Amino acid sequence: MWELALRVPNVRCEAIIPFEPMGYGLTIGQLAVRAGVNPRTIRYYEAIGLLPAPRRNPAGYRLYGPDDLGRLRFIRRARALGLSLAEIRQVLELRQAGQAPCDHVLGLLDAKLAAIERQLRELRALRRRLQALRQRGAKAARSGCICGILESGRPADGNEFSRAESLP
């Protein structure tokens, strides 16, 4: 660790500020703060191979550097875009093998977009069913049932009986 002397013009004091250059001297806590993750997350990523095993100081403490910080930030961005840890591992492995992973990433993004479109269609269909049920709800009140509103509509799968009820 270095010390940085800070002198302010026209002031008679000098502040000594501890300063750590961005080399392989970051502890797991310092790396976690800079990357915006929990130290346990860093240990987990090491355990599953997303982060390489860190250097160690003579006392055995983990030491990290700029490459580790960059990789953690990459993983966070990829997770924020919906990539799974397995998908992120594929991207990192392609890069480590000397290949540009961008075409692979485009394929992953296309698959994510298709899944989102499918989910949106399903949600719109569910909204239409709920709106129709809501409009009929006041008329559906019946005695002798749990809730006439829910029992008056067809199940979402279109079957009158659930699989459990149809078993012998």
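Above is the first protein from milestone M3; the second protein from the same milestone is given next.
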Amino acid sequence: MLSSLDILEYKLRTFLSASKVAIFGASGGGRRALLLMRKVGKTPIAFLDNDNTKWGNLIEGVKVFPPTDLGVISPEVVVIASVRRDEILKQIYAMEYSGVVIDLGEMELLVICGTLFKIFCDFFCKQHLGKE
């Protein structure tokens, strides 16, 4: 049986290697997820949202689609960026989505760890290798 740490590692590695990531939630959480994705050099292929007034709109150049388009968009990873996480998770799996689902908190952890790693590497190189 996999530990929760093993599962998190798998999710984060998949997120980093994925070429197609969608964000579920086109409000404040979705904008936060977009910012975090860009910090790790990624741009989502789409936003998904249950609010039909958002469908077709662009958020910083990324189009918002209805959740029913999940199969057409076919992302490798869906980031849930909404306070309705549990409801959305059920909705995604009811559509028989087989990719990886991560939430905003897991993505924030990835960015924090990446930033700490960069700081450590910069410090180590400066202290031990004499390089900037």
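Note on the second protein: The mean pLDDT is 88.
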